[in-house]
Amino acid sequence: MRGLPPPTWLRTFEAAARHLSFTQAAHELHVTQSAVSQQIRLLEDRVGQPLFHRLPQSLRLTEAGKAYMPVVRDAFERLGHGTEEVFGRSREDLLTLRATPGFIEFWLAPRLEDFFAANPDLQLRVTSTIWNTEFMEAGVDLEIRYGTGQWPALEAARLTRETLLPVCAPRVARGLRGDPARLVELRLLHTDGFQNGWPEWLHLAGVAGEVDGGSGSHFDTAILPLRLAEEGLGVALGRSSLVAPRLEGGSLAAPFETVLPTEEGFYVTWREGVPPRPEAGKLLEWLRTVAAEPDHA
Predict the structure, then answer these.
(1) What is the pLDDT of residues 240-284, one digit of tens each?
(2) CATH of residue 210
(3) How far does CA 204 lie from the centroid of its chain?
């Protein structure tokens, strides 16, 4: 079988199999009985097997038909549930926030309980993106971006001020003994797409000539480098706003005193000249308030 059969054929098969009647299926689908019969034959030709036993006074599913029926029914149910989930809610109370996976995992998720408690009637939809695009997609109320705050056609409010610092599992930190030169013995874990990274930090620490700033493993989000660092599989260069909870909780340690300031940070953005609607304004105000709290920025 090549490709997916047309949805019309599948819907006709599902109705006929449920009723075990071409006549009743035709009535449900508002088509003629001959149209139902033709679509079933086309579907059988496509899959290469008969789906019904056509008896003088009745229909009966073949073994292939019995096996195919729950698959087709499940597919339509999943499509219906998915459509309802994405499009079924009122636009007035569905807020869409887009952010990088790392920001969602390490900054947003631990703080959302307070937002939900303060806004129990608002529905929040969070979608992820890895790279900043030139524009904000339709249907997105607010977007979290990492950079210097300058994007065409967008207004931005800064949420974090970052420093960059190596982080690793506590047992790995003990082995480094506070000496950056020992990084040559370990895997450097990189998060691509940022303006500053390992080469700049190694230069500031005075070991750029001893440790290759491009060596190690590269990833397109901050999640996996930090998880690997927690597992003792290397040393990640963390953004302070993302690693602070792990440092406080003890799953990560900062083995060196040297930190690299950067002009980049996380910003909440919205369309220039288009004030966020009131519901999105509540989320914007909450983000700015939380970010301004001590030790949260």
Answers:
(1) 999 999 999 999 999 999 999 999 999 999 998 888 888 899 999
(2) 3.40.190.10
(3) 34
Number of domains in the chain: 3
Report whether 36 contacts 25 (CB < 8 A): yes
Clarify whether residues 136 and 155 are in a common domain: yes
Q: What distance in Å separates the CA atoms of residue 41 and residue 47, rounded to the nearest whole number? A: 10
- Euclidean distance between CA atoms 52 and 37, whole angstroms: 11
Same domain, 190 and 229: yes
Residues 146 and 185 in one domain: no
Query: Is 17 in contact with 70 (CB distance < 8 Å)?
Result: no
Does pLDDT of 221 surpass 50?
A: yes
Three-state helix/strand/coil letters over 263-287:
CCEEEEEEECCCCCCHHHHHHHHHH
Q: What percentage of the chain reaches a pLDDT higher than 70?
A: 91
Q: pTM here?
A: 0.67
- Comparing 134 with 214, which gets the higher pLDDT? 214
What's the domain range around 251? 163-261
